[in-house]
Design brief:
The structure holds two protein chains of two kinds.
Chain A lengths: L3 E3 L2 E3 L6 E2 L11 H24 L7 H21 L10 H15 L1 H9 L1 H11 L13 H23 L3 H8 L17 H7 L11 H15 L12 H6 L3 H7 L4 H4 L9 H6 L5 E2 L13 H20 L12
Chain B lengths: L10 E7 L6 H8 L8 E6 L2 E6 L13 E9 L2 E9 L1 H26 L10 H8 L6 H6 L11 H8 L4 H34 L3
Helix pairs in contact in B: 2-6
The chains are: A mainly alpha, B alpha+beta.
Chain lengths: 329, 203
């Protein structure tokens, strides 16, 4: 494979990656289907924003947000069935059970742990040690500006954390497990070693004082854009959307088996952060994973960062094996 | 205890009749591509085929199974392919509700022993800050967004919010129980159809 030069890098020399918007697949079918899968993403995002902007205080609550998130993902699961991006990414019973296991961990035990040592706990501690009143001006900004800033600050932090994970071995170990996924489905974002799920959740957005409605709006933007990162649905994503926001296409390149391709598109929501720092590659990939697409079982996903880390430590610092005696001639 | 009484949980057994006049060799030849997948090793001895799978691909048609034995037997006039397959995924899904029930119990126990934050620990300044109603930006007022409410005086609500609820764990326990039933029936049918198709349809 020759690969294609993107900036200073050769992308796609190890595994197939499609580069350039003009080369990626389009929605196939009748005019109604094409219309729906062209406009679905922007309409859903604006509907979510409008809902949270105008919802009365009695229903503008976190519990409503969780309910909407679950219902939206159920709808997208249906879309995966109707209009898959790739047949080779079809959801099977086993994949669904595996993905839901991680979703379940996120809603239960990880939530408990995060309450003690996660981002919220750290922010809470910091806010108690300093006088953060100087951030009070933040609540006077228009709601949508607050919402954008909350999601942007979080995503900016996540961009560097994610880029760090791909560049520093101790952070790569827990993140690598997520890169063993070999296909995209709606819940694949939850799959990964729990240590990583904790790291990726660290953010400084919580330091700012904001109106609750702004936080809910930020959550809506994050859902309305981020939900498509790992999804098996073919959309004709509008040009402006893919210039500003992360898409399935961008994230599939990031998950490609091609090493250079995987070192691109680190942002979660705003792909323009990648554009600013020169790590954006516009395109898509079907062949995903590590080690030639080896599917990692849950047991190994849980232990891999520790076993692999131990192995590397032993290799680096362990006593080298005694040299084999050479037989006398 | 005889494991056979419970091993149906993760063992799938069944049989598919061979096409009339089909030989053992022909039958196994037709099934052969199923065992030429990544992570699969197989061994054939006359009328029996044994296989194991490790790190099988997600789209492997038999990915849910980790090993098994296929044997061709004579049943009177007819010949049948009998199979006995094992699946760790089915066992895992069967046990997953127990794990989530344990998480639910853990949440209940933590809530019971967690010392509630005493309201006295909150400084007067913080309290004042909490009680103050922060105004909306004029742009949002003009666009008609509802104004923020005065913070609820009822502290009980806040305290409850700090506690985690065991409900999600119960929901996931139920979800995995349902998924197990679906998977046990579905995968049984899918693998029978897969073998039947391979043995009977033109390859």
């Amino acid at each position: 494979m020759d690969g294609i030069r993107v900036g200073k890098r050769i992308i796609g020399s190890e595994a197939p990656v499609t580069i350039g918007w003009e080369n990626i697949g389009r929605v196939e079918g009748g005019p109604v289907k094409r219309f729906i899968f062209t406009w679905f993403q922007p309409v859903a995002l604006f509907a979510l924003i409008a809902f949270w902007y105008y919802a009365p205080n009695s229903i503008a609550k976190a519990s409503t947000a969780i309910g909407i998130g679950i219902a939206f993902k159920a709808l997208l699961l249906g879309l995966e069935w109707v209009n898959p991006r790739y047949d080779s990414w079809r959801l099977t019973w086993k994949e669904m059970v595996t993905d839901l296991f991680y979703v379940g961990l996120g809603y239960t035990v990880l939530r408990i742990v995060d309450g003690y040592i996660g981002s919220d706990a750290i922010v809470h501690a910091i806010q108690h040690s300093f006088d953060w009143d100087k951030f009070a001006w933040f609540t006077g900004l228009p709601l949508l500006v607050q919402a954008f800033l909350i999601s942007f600050i979080f995503d900016f932090g996540q961009y560097w954390m994610h880029r760090g994970m791909h560049n520093w071995y101790p952070l790569w170990l827990p993140h690598s497990v997520h890169h063993y996924i070999t296909q995209f489905n709606i819940n694949k974002g939850a799959v990964g070693n729990p240590v990583e799920l904790f790291l990726i959740g660290l953010g400084i957005g919580g330091l700012f004082d904001f109106l609750p409605r702004a936080a809910l709006l930020a959550g809506a933007i994050s859902l309305g854009v981020g939900v498509y990162m790992h999804i098996n649905v073919r959309f004709n994503t509008p040009r402006w959307w893919r210039f500003v926001f992360n898409t399935t296409e961008h994230h599939s390149v990031h998950h490609s088996q091609d090493f250079e391709a995987s070192r691109s598109n680190f942002a979660g929501i705003y792909i323009f952060i990648d554009r600013i720092f020169g790590t954006c590659v516009d395109g898509e990939a079907e062949v995903l994973g590590l080690e030639g697409g080896r599917r990692m079982a849950i047991r190994e996903q849980m232990t891999y960062p520790f076993t692999e880390g131990w192995r590397s430590l032993k290799e680096r610092f362990g006593r080298s094996a005694p040299a084999q005696p050479v037989a006398a001639e | 205890m005889n494991l056979r009484f419970i091993d149906w949980i993760w063992h799938v057994r069944g049989s598919v009749p061979l096409a009339p006049g089909q030989s053992e060799d022909e039958a196994f030849e037709r099934l052969d591509p199923l065992f030429r997948q990544g992570g699969t090793t197989h061994d054939r001895a006359e009328a029996t085929l044994t296989f194991t799978k490790k790190d099988q691909a997600a789209q492997d048609k038999m990915s849910v199974f980790d090993g098994g034995v296929l044997a061709i037997e004579n049943r009177g006039e007819a010949r049948v392919l009998r199979y006995h397959l094992t699946s760790r995924a089915l066992l895992f899904c069967f046990l997953a509700p127990l794990l989530f029930l344990a998480f639910a119990q853990l949440t209940v126990v933590i809530n019971k022993y967690q010392k509630p934050d005493s309201p006295a620990s909150e400084s007067a300044k913080e309290k004042a800050k909490k009680d103050e109603v922060r105004p909306l930006n004029p742009i949002d007022k003009a666009l008609g967004a509802p104004a923020p409410e005065k913070p609820d005086k009822d502290k009980k609500k806040d305290k409850d919010k700090d506690k985690s609820s065991p409900t999600p764990a119960y929901v996931f326990a139920a979800l995995f129980a349902a998924l197990y039933v679906i998977g046990r029936v579905l995968e049984d049918r899918l693998v029978r159809n897969l073998f039947r198709k391979r043995l009977h349809e033109a390859v």
